[in-house]
Design brief:
The complex is a heterodimer of chains A (698) and B (539). The longest helix of chain A has 31 residues. In chain A, strands 13, 14, 15, 20, 23, 24, 31, 34 and 35 form a 9-stranded mixed β-sheet that branches. A 6-stranded mixed β-sheet of chain A has the order 3-2-1-4-11-12, sandwiched between helices. In chain A, strands 6-5-9-10 form a 4-stranded parallel β-sheet, with helices on both faces. Chain A is globular and about 80 Å long. In chain A, strand 5, helix 3 and strand 6 form a beta-alpha-beta unit. Chain A has 5 domains: 112 residues, Nucleotidyltransferase, domain 5, CATH 3.30.420; 133 residues, Dna Topoisomerase Vi A Subunit, Chain: A, domain 2; 230 residues, ATPase, nucleotide binding domain (Nucleotidyltransferase, domain 5); 112 residues, Dna Ligase, domain 1 (2-Layer Sandwich), CATH 3.30.1490; 63 residues, no CATH class. Chain A is an alpha+beta fold. Chain B has 539 residues and is of the alpha+beta class. Chain B folds into 2 domains: 218 residues, no CATH class; 187 residues, no CATH class. Helix content of chain B is 30%, strand content 22%. Classes of the chains: A alpha+beta (698), B alpha+beta (539).
Chain lengths: 698, 539
C-alpha cells in the first residue's frame, strides 16, 4: 500500500452547474468535470476523485492534500436554505437588517420590492446595553434579560444564533459577555459580529454575522460529512478550504466562519490567473472569467489579486447594485455581471438590444442545445457568427443546431429591429462585449487604474470566444488563454497560499498618532493572522500591513500599503507622504492648501501568508514559425462589420513557438479561441495561447 | 450597412452612460459631506455643446434631474464661448439657476478635443454648510440663508480661483469639508472629461453630433409611443401639508395631450414668509420624476425624454421668486410626486400607489458642551425616511426614501461625526395605513447629546398634522410626531433646543393604505401580527 505524499495535490471546486476536480501529480495535471449533486455535494467530489486518480494511476490514499472551495454557502444565501437563526441585537436597533440603507436601488420602479431580510423580525431579539463610538460603555448590558432571551431561543427551535451590537467592532466586551450567557443555556452555535466582521457600518456588519450564523450548521455538517467520506475512501490527507479572500483556512475555522467561504470559487479563478501572471512575470493583469451565467473581472497587480473588505451577494434585481445583501469580509475584489454564454438577449422599449442577466442555464440551455430552450442566448449568437463549430462543441458531446439559434435570434430580436440573423447576432455580441468592457473600465477606475495598461488572462468556457473583441474595446494589446481554462478555479486552489487577513477598525488621526498603541494593535492582529496560517503551514510567514486612510471628513478610505516594521516616533511624516501619493494615484490630485485638514486611518489590516516557493519563470514568446491554417470558415468580423474568411486550427496541432495570424479560430475540446483580424496568436512554452495585437511592440 | 451603424451607436450610448457613472462614482469616493458620501445626494451628467443633456448617471437623486439638465444652459448664457478654455470649471449655487437652494453646488466643465468644444460635464452635490443661518426654515430671505455664488469660474485653464476659495472659507462653518467638496466636484467632471476623450479617440469621433441625434431620436420615438398609449384629458388634485405655522395647500392639474404632458400648479398657496419655498426648477424636477415613473420608467433621462413634460405655475410656494427664502425647498418638492400622482390616479384607476411620507425627515443638529463644560462642537446632518404608500398589489415599503433617491447614514458613522447618541432607529409599528395592501411603516428615532452636551436642531418635517391619504378605500397612514422624552411637544419646523439629559423623539409618518381593508388577506394580517408590524393593541 502506497502512502500519501505532499507532491500529490487535489483541488475540488463545487460550482452551480459543475463540480471541477484538478489533480496535480508532481507537476502533471489531471482534471474532470462532474455534474454538481445538490442533495449530497460531497458525492460529486468523490466521484471526481475516482476519475482523476484512475487517470493518474494512483490510489486516493496517496493524495497529500485536498483543497476545497464551494458555492454551497453562497447558494444557501441565495436560495434561503439556511438554519432557523435568531439575532440578538442592541435595543432600539431591531430592524437594521430590514431597513437597510432606506434607499430604492432602482428609482423609477414604483413596484420595487426590497430583498427580504435574512432573519425575519420575529426572530430578532433586543437587549439593553450600549457601547459608544469611542468604545466607552454608555449603558451596561442587561444580563437578566439575556437569560430570558436564552430561554426563548431554546424554546423556539432555533438552529443558530447571531449577536450584533452597535459599535462592537471597537469594543466587543458586550458581545462576548452575551455569548457567554447564551451558551450556558444553548447548545447551538453562536456567532458574534466583532469576530465575524469587525468593521464600522452596522447594516453591513449585522448582515454579515447573520449570514454566518445562517449557513453555519449546514456548512459544519457538510464539512464533517465530507471528511468522513474521504476517510472511508482511504484519503487520510489534510483538507483545507479556500476562502473568499483567496487564502486557505482549516476546516475547523471554515466551520466556525463559513461566511468566509462565500465566492470561494471565483476567488480560485483569480488565483489561477495570478499564478499565470507570476509565471510569466506580468505585473499588470486583468483576469476575465466568463462562464454560463456571469462574467467576472478582477485586477491582478504584482501577481496578487486586489482585495476588498465588503461585497454584495444574492442580488435579486437584474444584478442591480444594492439589490443583494452586503457581506463585509476580506474578499478578492472582482466585478461580476450577468453576462455568460447562457445570458438571454432581448429588446427594450427604445429598440435597443439588451443581454442578461436572465440566463438559460444548462437546462433548458441556449436554443442551439436543442433541449427545449427557445430564447436566444449569447452562445446562439456566437454560433450564428461562426465563432463556434456546431459539430465540435464540448468535445462533441452536444451537437449544436445553428438553425434553431437563427430562429430564436430572429424571433426575439431580429424581427423587432428589421435585422437579418447575422447582423442581429453581431448586435447581441457587441452589446454583451460592451457591457463587459464597461464593467471592466468602471472597476479599473474605482481602483485608480487604467484598464488598457493591463494584459488580459481569459478563462472559463465562454471567455476565449469574446476575449479578443473585449481587448479591442479596452485597448488591451495582449491576452493569454491558458491551458486548463475550463477548470481554472480548481487549478487555482492548488496555487493558493495559506493566508489570513485580520482587520481592526480603529479611527486614528495622524495628529494624535501614538506609535506604541498602534504597534500593540498591529501586534495583536499579526498574532491572530499568523495563528490561522500556522494551522496549515509550517514554513516561514510574510505579513502585509495596510492602513485604510482618508482625509478626515471623507467617508471612503483608500488602501495604503505599509512596510512590515514597527512605527517609530517620526512615523507621521512617512504615513502622510504615503497617503498623499496613493490618493493622487486614485483621484488625480491630492487636496492642497487646506489649513488643518487632517488625515486619518480608519481600519488596519494585517494579511499573513506562508511564503510560496518561487514558480519556474517562463518568458512570453512572440513566436517565429508561422503556421498556416488548412481549413477555413466564414466568421463575422466585428471590426469590419461583415463576414470574413477565418482560418480554423486545432489547438493540439500547434507547438510552442508557433505563430498564427488572425483572423483565425483555434479550436479545442472545451472551447474555441477567436483571434480577430487585429490579433495574432502565439503558442507559449506551457501550451497557453498568447494573443498579440498586430503591430504592437511586444 | 446602416443597421450595423445603428448597433455601433447603441454601443456608444451605453459607453456614454458608463462615462457619467464613473463621474458620479468619483464624486462619491472623494466627497467630504456625509450628505454626498453616505447618502448619495448628488448627480452627474454629460451635455452636448448646445447644452442638451445626453446622459445622466444612474447614481444620484431625482431632485437634481431636471434642475441640472437646465442649469447648463444658464452657464452658457453667462459665460461667453470665447472665454471658455480647456481646464475651466464653472460653479454656482444660485437656487434659481441651479437646483433650488444654496446648499447644492453645481459645477460645469467644458470638454475639449483637439481644441474643439465637444461636450460639457455637470455635477451637483449637497454640501454640509453654506453659512448664513444654517440649514433650516427660519431665514426671511435668501440673503440670510448663506453665501451666494453667482455663475463664475472656479478654475480657469486648470488654475483654481483662490479668491473664491478664501471668501468661501470665511463664510462657512465647516470650511475644510466644504472646500474639499468643491475640489471633489471639479475632480469628478475631470474624470468624465478624460473618459469621454478616450472614448472619442478610440472610436475616431471628432464630435458627438451623430451620437446625440441617435440618442434623441430613439428616445423621442419611445416616449411618443408611451404618451400615445395614455388616456387623454385633464385631472386635478390637491394636497394639504403642514407648512411652517399654517397649513399649505398644493394644487396641480395634469393634462395628457397627444404628444406631451402638462402640469400646472395654479391654485397652490402663495409663497411663505419662511424658508420652505420652492423655486419652479425644483418643483418641475419632481413633477417630471413622478410622470416618468408612470410613463417611462425604463427610458434613460436625457434632454429628449424630459422635453415631453412641461410645467407651468403662477408665482406661489411651488414657483417662489427671488429673494424668497428657499433652504427647505425639498419639503414641498418631495410632496410634488404625491400631488401629481394623485391627479394621474384618476386617469389610470387601479394603477397608482397611495400617498406616503413624502418629504425626507432631515434633521440638522448643532451640538456643543453645556455652558462652562468641556467637550466638542459639531454639525451633524441626518436623512431619515418614513413609509411609502401601498401599491396596487403590494404593501408599501417601510422606512424607505420616496421620492428622494438618497440613502440614510449608518448611525455608527453619524455618531463619529459629533458627540451625540442615537438610542433608537427602528420601525414604528402601527404606522402604516390599513388596506388590502398596507402602507409602509415609518420609523422611530431617539437622539440625545452625549453627557455634558446639549443641542439645537433644525426641524424639517412634514405630515405631522396632515397624514398621507390612502387610495381606493385604503386608510391614511399615521401622522408623524416630534417630542421630547418628557412628553414636551416640539414643532415640525424651525430651530429648537434640546437640553442636556433629554432625548428628542421623532416618530416618522407611515404610508397610506391601498384598497378596502376588509379585503386584506388572512395571511397578510397574521404576518403583520407575528412580525409585530401591528402591535397587540394596534388597530
Amino acid at each position: 500500500m502506497t502512502s500519501r505524499t505532499d507532491d500529490i495535490r487535489l483541488g475540488a471546486d463545487i460550482g452551480g452547474t459543475f463540480t471541477d476536480i484538478a489533480l496535480d501529480l508532481r507537476g502533471k495535471l489531471f482534471s474532470t468535470k462532474v455534474l454538481t449533486n445538490y442533495a449530497a455535494p460531497e458525492q460529486a467530489i468523490l466521484d471526481g476523485i475516482v476519475v482523476v486518480t484512475r487517470d493518474a494511476g494512483i490510489s486516493a490514499a496517496e493524495i497529500g492534500i485536498i483543497i476545497h472551495g464551494t458555492t454551497l454557502a453562497t447558494n444557501a444565501l441565495i436560495e434561503r436554505r439556511g438554519a432557523k437563526t435568531a439575532l440578538v441585537t442592541t435595543e432600539g436597533f431591531r430592524d437594521v437588517i430590514e431597513m437597510r440603507t432606506e434607499n430604492r436601488f432602482e428609482q423609477y420602479d414604483l413596484n420595487l420590492q426590497l430583498p427580504t431580510p435574512l432573519i425575519p423580525r420575529e426572530h430578532r431579539f433586543t437587549v439593553k446595553g450600549r457601547i459608544g463610538a469611542e468604545g466607552q460603555e454608555l449603558r451596561p448590558l442587561d444580563e437578566a434579560a439575556l437569560e430570558e432571551i436564552a430561554g426563548r431561543i431554546a424554546a423556539g427551535g432555533f438552529g443558530s444564533v447571531a449577536i450584533g451590537f452597535i459599535h462592537a467592532y471597537t469594543n466587543p466586551a458586550h458581545e462576548r459577555r452575551a455569548r457567554e450567557i447564551l451558551s450556558r443555556k444553548l447548545s447551538i452555535p453562536i456567532s458574534i459580529s466583532a469576530e465575524v466582521s469587525p468593521q464600522m457600518r452596522e447594516f453591513e456588519r449585522f448582515n454579515t454575522v447573520c449570514a454566518n450564523a445562517y449557513v453555519r450548521p449546514q456548512m459544519a455538517d457538510y464539512l464533517a460529512r465530507f471528511q468522513t467520506r474521504l476517510k472511508e475512501m482511504g484519503a487520510e490527507c489534510p483538507v483545507f478550504m479556500i476562502h473568499s479572500g483567496g487564502g486557505l483556512i482549516s476546516v475547523e475555522t471554515a466551520s466556525e466562519f463559513p461566511v468566509r467561504l462565500v465566492e470561494s470559487g471565483p476567488a480560485g479563478g483569480a488565483i489561477f490567473a495570478a499564478d499565470i501572471a507570476r509565471r510569466f512575470g506580468l505585473e499588470k493583469v486583468v483576469s476575465y472569467d466568463m462562464g454560463g451565467t456571469t462574467a467576472k473581472i478582477c485586477l491582478i497587480e504584482d501577481f496578487a489579486p486586489r482585495t476588498a473588505r465588503t461585497f454584495e451577494v444574492a442580488r435579486t434585481y437584474r444584478f442591480c447594485k444594492g439589490s443583494g445583501m452586503p457581506i463585509s469580509i476580506p474578499v478578492i475584489e472582482m466585478i461580476e455581471i450577468g453576462a455568460g454564454g447562457g445570458s438571454i438577449a432581448w429588446v427594450d422599449a427604445m429598440g435597443r438590444i439588451q443581454t442578461g442577466p436572465e440566463s438559460a442555464g444548462s437546462e433548458p440551455g441556449p436554443a442551439c442545445y436543442g433541449r427545449g430552450g427557445k430564447r436566444p442566448a449569447i452562445t446562439d449568437a456566437d454560433l450564428v457568427l461562426g465563432k463556434l463549430d456546431p459539430d465540435n462543441f464540448a468535445g462533441g458531446a452536444i451537437k449544436l443546431d445553428t438553425a434553431a439559434s437563427e430562429q430564436a435570434i430572429l424571433r426575439d430580436v431580429g424581427e423587432r429591429l428589421s435585422l437579418d440573423a447575422m447582423s442581429t447576432a453581431f448586435g447581441i455580441c457587441e452589446v454583451v462585449d460592451e457591457n463587459m468592457a464597461n464593467a471592466a473600465r468602471v472597476h479599473a477606475v474605482e481602483n485608480g487604474k487604467n484598464i488598457s495598461d493591463n494584459l488580459m488572462i481569459a478563462f472559463g468556457g465562454a471567455a476565449p470566444l469574446h476575449a479578443a473583441r473585449l481587448c479591442e474595446k479596452l485597448g488591451i494589446e495582449r491576452c493569454i488563454v491558458p491551458k486548463g481554462a475550463g477548470v481554472g478555479s480548481a487549478i487555482g486552489f492548488l496555487k493558493a497560499p495559506f493566508g489570513y487577513e485580520a482587520l481592526a477598525s480603529k479611527l486614528t488621526r495622524l495628529s494624535r498618532f501614538q506609535p506604541a498603541e498602534v504597534n500593540a494593535l498591529l501586534g495583536d492582529l499579526k498574532a491572530s493572522a499568523e495563528s490561522f496560517v500556522r494551522s496549515g503551514a509550517s514554513g516561514s510567514i510574510t505579513c502585509e500591513i495596510t492602513a485604510f486612510m482618508r482625509y478626515a471628513g471623507q467617508g471612503w478610505e483608500i488602501p495604503v500599503p505599509l512596510p512590515d516594521a514597527p512605527f517609530g516616533e517620526d512615523a507621521v511624516t512617512g504615513l502622510k507622504e504615503l497617503f498623499e501619493a496613493n490618493y493622487q494615484r486614485f483621484f488625480g490630485r491630492a487636496i492642497e492648501g487646506l489649513d488643518g485638514l487632517e488625515i486619518e486611518i480608519v481600519t488596519w489590516s494585517v494579511k499573513a501568508t506562508d511564503i510560496r516557493p518561487d514558480v519556474a519563470r517562463h518568458e512570453l514568446t512572440s513566436g517565429k514559425r508561422t503556421s498556416n491554417p488548412t481549413t477555413t470558415r466564414a466568421v463575422f468580423d466585428p471590426a469590419s462589420g461583415e463576414p470574413q474568411t477565418y482560418g480554423i486550427v486545432e489547438r493540439d496541432t500547434l507547438c510552442a513557438g508557433d505563430r498564427v495570424a488572425g483572423p483565425v479560430v483555434i479550436v479545442e475540446r472545451e472551447t474555441s479561441t477567436v483571434v480577430t483580424t487585429s490579433f495574432d496568436a502565439v503558442i507559449q512554452s506551457d501550451g497557453a495561447i498568447l494573443l498579440i495585437r498586430k503591430g504592437s511592440q511586444s | 450597412m446602416s443597421d450595423i451603424s445603428d448597433i455601433r451607436m447603441q454601443v456608444m450610448w451605453n459607453r456614454l452612460i458608463s462615462v457619467v457613472e464613473e463621474q458620479a462614482l468619483t464624486l462619491l469616493r472623494t466627497a467630504f459631506s456625509t450628505s454626498v458620501r453616505e447618502s448619495g445626494d448628488l448627480s452627474a451628467g454629460v451635455f452636448d455643446p448646445r447644452g442638451q443633456m445626453l446622459a445622466q448617471a444612474v447614481t444620484g437623486t431625482p431632485g437634481h434631474v431636471n434642475t441640472m439638465a437646465e442649469a447648463v444652459l444658464h452657464f452658457m448664457n453667462e459665460i461667453p464661448r470665447d472665454t471658455m478654455f480647456e481646464g475651466d470649471t464653472y460653479v454656482t449655487n444660485d437656487p434659481w439657476l441651479g437646483t433650488g437652494h444654496l446648499h447644492d453646488i453645481t459645477m460645469v466643465s467644458p470638454s475639449f478635443l483637439n481644441g474643439e468644444l465637444v461636450a460639457f460635464f455637470a455635477c451637483t452635490a449637497h454640501v454640509v454648510d453654506v453659512g448664513g443661518r444654517g440649514f433650516g426654515a427660519d431665514a426671511k430671505s435668501v440673503y440670510e440663508e448663506g453665501i451666494q455664488i453667482p455663475i463664475m469660474k472656479f478654475a480657469e485653464k486648470g488654475k483654481v480661483n483662490l479668491d473664491l476659495v478664501r471668501i468661501l472659507r470665511a463664510n462657512v462653518r465647516e470650511p475644510n469639508q466644504v472646500v474639499g467638496d468643491f475640489y471633489s466636484l471639479a475632480a469628478c467632471n475631470e474624470v468624465g472629461h478624460r473618459r469621454l476623450v478616450d472614448m472619442m479617440k478610440e472610436i475616431g469621433l471628432s464630435s458627438l453630433d451623430g451620437l446625440g441625434d441617435f440618442i434623441f431620436s430613439r428616445t423621442r420615438d419611445a416616449m411618443l409611443e408611451r404618451i400615445k398609449a395614455l388616456p387623454k384629458g385633464s385631472w386635478s388634485n390637491e394636497l394639504v401639508t403642514d407648512g411652517y405655522d399654517a397649513p399649505v395647500k398644493l394644487v396641480a392639474k395634469v393634462s395628457v395631450r397627444d404628444d406631451h404632458v402638462e402640469v400646472d400648479f395654479t391654485g397652490t398657496d402663495p409663497m411663505s414668509r419662511w424658508g420652505i419655498n420652492c423655486p419652479i426648477i425644483y418643483s418641475k424636477a419632481y413633477a417630471c420624476y413622478a410622470l416618468k415613473c408612470v410613463v417611462a420608467p425604463d427610458i434613460p433621462n436625457n434632454a429628449a425624454s424630459l422635453a415631453f413634460f412641461t410645467v407651468t405655475s403662477p408665482v406661489n410656494i411651488l414657483n417662489a421668486v427671488r429673494p424668497a427664502p428657499v433652504a427647505l425647498r425639498h419639503i414641498f418638492g418631495h410632496m410634488v410626486p404625491d400631488l401629481v400622482l394623485g391627479a394621474i390616479s384618476q386617469a389610470m384607476p387601479g394603477k397608482i400607489l397611495a400617498e406616503g411620507a413624502g418629504a425626507l425627515w432631515n434633521i440638522h443638529i448643532s451640538v456643543r458642551p453645556v455652558a462652562g463644560g468641556q467637550g466638542r462642537r459639531a454639525e451633524v446632518l441626518m436623512f431619515n425616511s418614513g413609509g411609502m404608500g401601498a401599491r396596487p398589489g403590494i404593501d408599501g415599503l417601510s422606512a424607505t426614501a420616496f421620492p428622494s433617491g438618497v440613502h440614510t447614514m449608518p448611525i455608527e458613522a453619524t455618531e463619529h461625526t459629533g458627540p451625540i447618541v442615537i438610542w433608537r432607529k427602528e420601525l414604528r409599528p402601527d404606522s402604516g395605513g390599513d388596506g388590502e395592501f398596507r402602507g409602509g411603516l415609518g420609523q422611530v428615532i431617539e437622539i440625545a447629546a452625549i453627557e455634558g452636551h446639549e443641542f439645537d436642531f433644525s426641524a424639517m418635517f412634514d405630515r405631522v398634522n396632515h397624514p398621507a391619504h390612502g387610495r381606493n378605500g385604503g386608510e391614511p397612514g399615521v401622522a408623524g410626531v416630534v417630542k421630547l422624552d418628557d412628553g414636551t411637544q416640539m414643532r415640525p419646523k424651525g430651530w429648537q433646543h434640546v437640553p442636556a439629559g433629554r432625548r428628542l423623539i421623532l416618530e416618522l409618518p407611515g404610508g397610506g393604505g391601498y384598497g378596502d381593508p376588509a379585503k386584506r388577506s388572512v395571511e397578510a394580517r397574521a404576518n403583520d401580527q407575528s412580525k409585530e408590524y401591528i402591535s397587540e393593541n394596534g388597530k
